[in-house]
Structure formats: C-alpha cells, structure tokens
Design a protein that fits this description.
Chain A is an all-alpha fold. Chain A contains ten helices and no strands. The first copy, chain A, binds a DNA duplex through helix 1 and helix 3.
DNA sequence: CATAGGACCTAATATCATTAGGTCTCCCGT
DNA sequence: ACGGGAGACCTAATGATATTAGGTCCTATG
C-alpha cells in the first residue's frame, strides 16, 4: 500500500523532472544524470521505472494526450452546431496547451523527430483527437451550416495546420504571450472559408451585383 | 585551384552524406562515424570541415533556405494579382520541397528541436520567406481583391500553417504520394476566406436574402 | 631536392546511456 | 523475536560515440 503509492510517487517525480528538463534544455542536451538528480535518485534507479531516456520521452506525451482524449468528448457534449463545436474545440485545446506547456513543447518540438513516432500510442491518439474534427465538418456540411461542397479533410488540414502553427510559434517564443491573443479574429477569418454562402448564395442573388461592392475596386481578372 | 575545388568537393560529399543519413535515420541515430564513412574519410577529417555534428545539422538547411530565398523574387516577378502570387508561391514552394525532400525533412523535423534554432541564419531566412506573404496579403487588401478587413498576419498564419501541415504529414508518411494531390482544392478552400465579397457584399445586397440560400437549412443561432 | 602546408589518418580522451552486481530496509511467516 | 526474501535504491563498471591530440603523407614551390 504505502509501497505502491511510494513507487507511484517516485515515478511521477521522475516524469515531472524529465518533463521540466526536456522542455528547458531539449531532449538531446538533457542527460539521464540530470533527470535522476532532479528527481533525487541515482541513474540506475531510474531504469527501474523506465526502459531509458527514449521511453521517458515517449511516455510523457502519451499520458498527456490520453488525458486530452478522455476530456474531449465531455467538452463537446451538448454544444450545438458545427461552428459552435469547432470554436469550443479550438478554445479548449488552446487552454489545455497553455495549462501544460511542458507537455505541449515535448509533443510539438521533440516527438516528431523520433523515428518511432508513427508507431507510438501518442500518434494514434493524436489522430483520434484530430478525427473529431472530421465529424464536426461532416456535420456542418450536412446540416447546411457549412458549404455543401466542403471536403472535411481539407477543412481539417486548414484548421489543424493553423492551430499547430500558432502553437508552435508560441512555444518557440518561449510562451511569452497569451495563446488567445487574436484567436477570435483568426478563428473568424479561417472559418469564413467553411461557411455556406459565398458562390452558392451569390449565384442565387443576381449576378450583376458582382463588382459593385464598395470594397471591390480591384481587377478581378487576376483571379482567373 | 585544384586544391580549392578538391576541398569544395569533399565538403559537399560530407554534406550530402550527412543529409542522406540524417533524413534516413534521424539526427540522433546518425553517428559521426556513419557520416565520415559514407563520405569516404575519417571522423577526424570531418572536423576539418565542420565544427561538429550540430554544425552540420545547421549548415544543411542554411544552404537550402538561402537558395530558396534567392529564387523567390524571381519566381514571383511579373505575376499579376495577389491571388496569382499566392498561388505561385504555394506551387513553387511545394515543388521545391518535392525536389529536395531531404533538406525539407531536416528543416521540418529536426531543426525546430534544436535549442539554437531561433538564433540561426536559417530561422531568419525562413522568416524572410514568410514575410513575402505579408506583402502579398497587403497588396490583396489594398487592391480590393481581398477583404478590406483582412489582417495580413492572420492570413499568413493560416496559409503557412496549412502549408506546413501538409508538408509535415507528407514527410512523416515518407513522401509516399504527391504533394500536389488535392493542392488545388485546398488552395481554393483556404483562399476563399481571404476573398473580398462575403459579409461586405452580402450586406450591400438585401439582408433578407440571408437564410434563403438553398444550402442553408441549418440553425444559424448556434453561431452566436 | 628540401621543405612547408594542407588533407588526412590513428589513437587517445571525455561524456554519456545503460547494466552488473551489490546493500539496506522493511515486512512476513514461523 | 528473527531469518529470509523482496523491493527500492546505490556504486561502479561497460560500451558507444563525439571530439581532440598528435602525427603521416603527399604535393607544390622555391
């Protein structure tokens, strides 16, 4: 009993030490000695808990992403409309990243470089995390909120790409500002592409209206 | 003379060996012995050319990105319209990536994890590469091709994010398909968000039109 | 033809990751 | 109460690999 929780405790001490050091100095520059010192034990003891440094690198994000995945269902539960869900998804994820910047840093900066990444549990969980988005876009398309010709995969690529880009920059800049700065505006801009109205609706209105919009003085031919 | 070019030659042999091995096995798993063997010399000789393994990691993408930067001006020269330039930018970049997958792999997968990345020449060149986009969006906005309220930075985030996401997936999947698959559709979808017409134009038309579009059966309230 | 410099080599050295082979403590059955 | 055994931890190898020291050899030049 006491043993069990003692052992659990040590394990967690190792994890949080490793997390801190990996995020601070990078995976390569962090030595196993560093980690064990920080956790208050010897190198050898660490090997009782983990197979090695790489195992540690893979375990940390695994825990985090599993937890995210568990939370996601609940977070989206009861939210109405595809755009509502999409917005909640983004805000939720950004907040989780802000709350666990060390985990996020490891996932975004160190994990992808690992040759085994594609075979890890983490990867498969990240895919699940993203596949929720496909459902949301599908829902939006069939409900008519989003364009009828929307391809959920392409929409997901844009959404995830933008999100990851914002997060990666934030991590590289040492988390020196809030992830939510401008998020509203970027969300609005991006989701505009998904909305049902543009050409379809314009076609339904009179075509002659095209070109008279106050902001549209430019040469449209260039688009062709 | 012969010396000079001999030396140049050796340097390039080292670079291309390192590139190949880094991309194949990853940075960590590649040893200096591997690289020098592949290049046909001893480890020690390699240190005549590079300060070490990390220097090599940073040199390789530096060369590539500098070259890209030099090329970009020329590629965009003479292209009319912001959307025209945007499209050319994307197609050009994707092709360069497809042509130099090893360089791309190193930039996208291994570079960001390096603690010094932010202080490297590569980083500053990548920024320059991306800052072209700001100009393009600015041009689009003022010319009226793009929405009047378009924030060039946000548009860039979406554009770069999407592009990088597509490339990263392609690299992780071992470049097993063409980067140009679906590129047209994704480009169309994404740039739709930037186009000048939506709300501005709809507002100019009659507001009562909203909701009667054939594809809009869904509940719009959820958007609020 | 002697020699200086450059390109390269072999053989250290230093820094880790990982493992071998203990010690110490606490708990359990007798 | 006590012997032993299991678990948690330790010190001290071992092995791999980045980096450096200190040459050798070849070539070009006076």
């Amino acid at each position: 009993m006491a043993n069990r929780s003692q052992k659990e405790n040590t394990r967690e001490r190792i994890i949080s030490s490793a997390k801190k050091l990996f995020a601070e100095q990078g995976y390569q520059k962090t030595t196993v000695v560093d980690i064990s010192k920080q956790a208050g034990l010897s190198e050898a003891a660490l090997y009782e808990y983990f197979q090695g440094k790489e195992d540690l690198l893979l375990t940390i994000p695994d825990l985090w992403v599993s937890e995210l995945l568990k939370d996601l269902d609940e977070q989206l539960f009861g939210i109405k409309g595809a755009f509502g869900k999409l917005r909640k998804y983004l805000w939720w994820y950004m907040r989780r990243v802000e709350q666990s910047p060390l985990d996020a840093k490891i996932v975004y900066l160190f994990l992808k470089t690992n040759a085994n990444f594609l075979n890890t549990q983490v990867y498969s969980n990240v895919r699940k995390l993203y596949s929720y988005l496909l459902d949301i876009f599908e829902e939006g398309r069939t409900s008519g909120e989003m364009r009828g010709d929307l391809n959920p995969r392409f929409a997901r690529d844009i959404f995830v790409g933008t999100m990851d880009h914002i997060i990666t920059r934030w991590l590289l800049k040492d988390m020196s500002y809030s992830l939510f700065e401008n998020l509203e505006d970027i969300f609005e801009l991006m989701t505009d592409a998904f909305k049902a109205h543009n050409s379809e609706m314009l076609n339904n209105l009179h075509n002659e209206a095209v070109g008279v919009g106050s902001e549209n003085g430019g040469d449209r031919e260039a688009l062709a």
